[in-house]
Amino acid sequence: MSADPRAYPDRPILAVSAAIIRDGRVLVARRARGPALGIWTLPGGVVEAGETLNEALVREIDEETGMTVEPVALAGHREVMARDGNGRAERHFVILCFAARWVAGELKLNEELAEARWLQPSELKDYQTTEGLGGIVAAAFEQMETAS
Question: How far is CA 130 from the centre of its chain?
């Protein structure tokens, strides 16, 4: 088994996620593996070299959910860092979170996601979510209203 290429990075890893909004609801997904195993969060993933942020977002959402989305605007960011017992950064991600409009397709989860649900923002409080998810979702809804 090969070593995890995302462990002990030389610099932060850039990732994107999407607050996909459809009919007044946002899609949240429960991760099927680490680093956020079992936590409800927004779908997304790592930006590949040569990709724009929008291209990465559209690709990652298609890979994880089978859906097509249209990125609308940046809704915020998160920084995820885990340190080992010696204080070294074992993982370090900078995640740019976008408001995105659902365009087409129905949910077909890949192996990274255990389940997903379309929720009203007020329902998020009933779920164990990544830190700051409620604020990101609220900002995404604001961005969507501004873009309309």
Answer: 10
